[in-house]
Design brief:
Layout lengths: L5 H4 L2 E4 L10 E5 L12 H10 L9 E5 L8 H11 L5 E4 L2 H15 L9 E5 L8 H11 L5 E6 L2 E7 L3
Parallel strand pairs: 1-5, 2-3, 3-4, 5-6
Antiparallel strand pairs: 6-7
Helix pairs in contact: 4-5
């Protein structure tokens, strides 16, 4: 008796967001050490730090600019760092590492052609090795609900039904 793999033969289309994960190191760049007493930004000193810093070490990285000290940082400070980082990096945001992932996946999902999922049974794969932001799953489900016949989450062998078109 032949054993049939019903999952392999199904018309289920699987989307694994981990396959879209952009390659490159993620770095949280904290500017607090460039502040006077970790509280005050002195323009001349700050500009000197920026000028002397080796920006090439961030080649192909994704950078999250932030300040962990309780200080007021003028916008131009982040912009000054950005114009020095931009020639080397993949992407720069103000925020934390989760902010980078959220922005990257927002762009990825918005550029995804939903027509390829029209009238299909779609499984959004869960259980990833990499940290995929919850927002990415929400945005993907929101996009699919307009075109797919059904949307599920999890693994093909055990999934959670999320949506079924009642045509």
């Amino acid at each position: 008796m032949e054993i049939l793999n019903r999952i392999k033969k199904s018309k289920l289309v699987s989307i694994d967001l981990e396959n879209f994960y952009p390659k490159g190191e993620r770095i949280a760049f904290d500017i607090k050490d460039w502040l006077f007493d970790e509280v005050v930004l002195k323009e001349k000193d700050f500009r000197d730090y920026v000028k002397q810093h080796d920006w090439s070490q961030y080649k192909d990285a994704f950078i999250a600019l932030h300040c962990s000290a309780d200080a007021i940082i003028p916008s131009w400070a982040y912009l000054l760092i950005t114009v020095n980082l931009a020639p080397f990096t993949n992407r720069i945001v103000v925020g934390d590492l989760e902010t980078i992932e959220t922005i990257l996946y927002t762009e990825i999902i918005s550029s995804l052609d939903e027509e390829q999922f029209r009238n299909k049974h779609v499984l959004i794969k869960g259980c990833n090795e990499k940290k995929i932001p919850e927002t990415a799953y929400v945005q993907l489900a929101e996009k699919l609900v307009h075109v797919a016949t059904s949307v599920m989450y999890g693994e093909a062998c055990s999934n959670v039904p999320l949506f079924k078109n009642k045509k």
